[in-house]
Amino acid sequence: MTEKLYYKSAYLKEFTAQVLECTEADAGFDIVLDKTAFFPEEGGQGADTGTLGEATVTHVFEKDGIIHHLASIPLSGEVLGKIDFAARFDKMQNHTAEHILCGVIHKLHGLDNVGFHLGADEVTFDISEPLTKEELREAEELANRAVFDNIAVECYFPDEAELASLDYRSKLELKGNVRLVRIGEVDLCACCAPHVKSTGEVGSIKILEVMRHRGGMRIWIAAGARALRDYRMNKENLGEISAALSVPKSEAAEAHARYMQETDKLRLELKAARRALAEEKAKSVRSTDGNAVCLTEGLGMEELRHFVNAALPAVGGILVALTGTDGDYKYIIASNSVDLTKEIKQINQALSGRGGGKPNAAQGSFATDLESIRRYFG
Ligand SMILES: [Zn+2]
Fold this sequence. Notes:
Layout (H helix, E strand, L loop, with lengths): L2 E2 H4 L5 E12 L2 E6 L1 E2 L13 E3 L2 E9 L2 E6 L6 E6 L1 H25 L3 E6 L4 E5 L5 H16 L4 E4 L3 H6 L14 E4 L3 E4 L14 E9 L2 E8 H22 L6 H31 L9 E4 L5 H11 L6 E8 L2 E8 L4 H11 L2 E6 L2 E6 L3 H8 L1
């Protein structure tokens, strides 16, 4: 069994240890030490990183009480271990934050934590039933009050008798050698991970997102520097939005909603105006028994469709409505007398075109010049 130094102190950054085993692994060397401060991947929390001697430690896992370190080079004898403590402390803050919030939710609503993930970028936990926005806000409020109260976080191994007498949160039915994490009256939970020594070190706890998940809810949180990063990101984005809308940050959402309403109204007006323009242009199509080729500059495909609908009664043969320039024309071809399903293949072949449609209308593009198109339909 590897001696777990992180249980003596979660704040141990450096240690010396003896290399007991060094074997070649898939991506480096698997190092077993007599003792270690590296916390392995366990209980939803990612492994510590750092160095052992000159080697970089990229992964740490535990198997049958033995902790394995995946190192970049082989090692032997006595080595100095250094863990990336900034990353570790960040995990301690966020893991403790999760305990506080889950403890509060458990006390308020009797809900269980049924899932936990603490990675480098994200902290999530799952609860057995969904909570309302107001309930989440209340839990967040109380969790932060527990931070302000700077309550001691005690990690200990109770004996069997004491364990049996305690009511603690746990994802599994546990027996023997159970490590408990007590946060005053806020929470008592079985957990193997390193935590901060008092809640004040958590900094602050913010619920970022929630999502319905397996009949319950998944909750994203951020504490410590992660909460600060999230605050900065939000502030910068909100700052840009409020500056663009020329309103204070506190009024940005309302101003944005107004702006979107105005935009929607303008979009509808623009659509109607474009349709009217297309229909106006269609009036200039002269009545003919033959074909008509019309270049309608400045119209999009939707307006082109309105143009065709309005102009088609004047055309006895095939109406070709184009938009674009030589070499790149978009077309809508329509006819009340010719079956286009047969014609369109031939038309496309002759005019470097692609596209198709129904018997009375087709849509596509021509990679040729206007002169050739006119000549073909002339
Ligand atoms: Zn935990």
